[in-house]
Amino acid sequence: MQAMGSGSLATARLFHRRRFLVRTSALAAAGLLAHPLRLPALQQSDAAKPPQPPLTVDEKITKILVEHLGVEEKKVVPAARLKEDLGADSLDVVEIVMAMEEAFDLEISDELCDAWKTVADIRHTIHAELEKEKAATPN
After folding, report:
1. Which end of the chain is least crowded, N or C, by CB within 10 Å?
2. Average per-residue pLDDT for the chain
3. For 51, which DSSP code?
4. How far apart are CA 56 and CA 133, in angstroms?
């Protein structure tokens, strides 16, 4: 993950949006998106499966990192560094940001994303942003 300015992050987001949309359909199929994309009707074998309990926020974050970085789930621990331990580059981070925004229906600022060095940083940001959304939403 190289140091990037806000302008280059925004440019990279636009450039990789099309590739991201293909990956989000896989996340939707796995039930990881807050607003799933339209998918073909379920096959009979899928309908017979018992419903899975909803994933926690940290489980969703882990699944997204595993999907986008191609690492084993056991490597995605809070202290894991995105670049050194998980092999993320700046383009991976852009895709991860967009996946997190889709999965949690959030808008994450470039400043917050630029500060992500570890899995714990991502978890902290997502939890904080979800709390802000919850506090801003009237009951």
Report:
1. C
2. 79
3. P
4. 17
Q: What is d(CA 64, CA 34) in angstroms, rounded to the nearest whole number?
A: 13
Residue identified by tokens 């993320």 is 88
Extract the runs of DSSP E, i.e. beta strands, from the chain.
Answer: none
Catalytic residues: 89
Tokens of 34: 């807050």
* Alpha carbons 10 and 3: distance in angstroms, whole number: 13
Q: How far apart are CA 15 and CA 18, in angstroms?
A: 7
Query: Would you state the structure tokens that stand for residue 123, as one six-digit string?
Result: 């978890």
Tell me what percent of the chain is helix, strand and coil, each rounded to the nearest 5: 60, 0, 40
What are the tens digits of pLDDT across the range 20-68? Answer: 555 655 556 566 655 544 444 545 555 566 788 888 999 999 999 999 9
| Residue reference for tokens 């974050």 | 61
Does residue 117 sit within a domain? yes
Residue 72 domain boundaries: 6-136
Per-residue b or e along 77-103, where b marks 16 or more CB atoms closer than 10 Å to that residue's CB: eeebbbbeebebeeebbbbbbbbbbbb
Domains held by the chain: number: 1
